Amino acid sequence: MLITFFYDMNRLLEFIKKYNYWFLFVLLEIIGIIMLFRFNNYQASVYLTSANAVSGKLYDMSSAVTSYADVKEQNRELTRQNILLERQVAQLRLKLEKINGDKEYIDSKEKAMASLDGYTLLDAQVINATTSKVRNYLTINKGYKDGVKPEMGVVGGRGVIGIVYLTSAHYSLVIPLLNEKSNLSCRIRDRGYFGTLSWSGGNTQTAWLNDIPRHARFKVGDYVVTSGFSSVFPEGMYVGKIEKVYYSADGLSYQCLVRLGTDFGKLRDVNVLLNPHLMEHKAVEDSARIADLKEIN
To answer: What is the model's pTM?
Structure first.
């Protein structure tokens, strides 16, 4: 047995020695490809787009096998959400009845509701997700053939999830709140103060709301919602709840630890906010930025 082992090892070494230039060539090719896609934004974008279509189909197949196990829990969650929504509608109806013809108040509420008319909800499912990295991504089973475009918002039953980054025909890559590249404009509900929500790794259930002015009056437990400063999300969409408050490093503002409404470890059903005016809105903002740059130069 020992003689046979040494004989086989000798043959293996001879084989490696005979074709060592081929092995070196393949190794250098792999290193070159990795460096090309890692340090060049355009090539990385092309790779992500094409790989997203292929991997999306594989994720979709594996997701279909495991999705049935979560159906019961999701149904229970949907039932609870429907009950809460029905209670909220009933409470709003009672408040409106107590207004007794206050037309100005009713008009303001109608305008707030009308701000959602420009969006259409597109059902989608998360078929792959990461939560353990600094730059996490989600893959959903809807793409540009379904009307999904980059920079569209993605939401779930418990709040904001993220923004579409890349799309293929039938799949899309989403940058969730749990990504260091994510910066979401938010405000503290009923307080009017604005800040930027960001995440720098660590706890997947919390994020940081920065740049809240020192003169702001709010408290732990206040809700954080979207500001509506962009066409990605309408104003007032739930993000999370303030859990702790700290001073910023320079002492000029507050930094709030926010308990996110979405549990990213259990995501399945989501909605894409389709906005037919997204590109027009973005074009106007880009034109304004270009005009500002020309004035500066």
So the answer is: 0.67
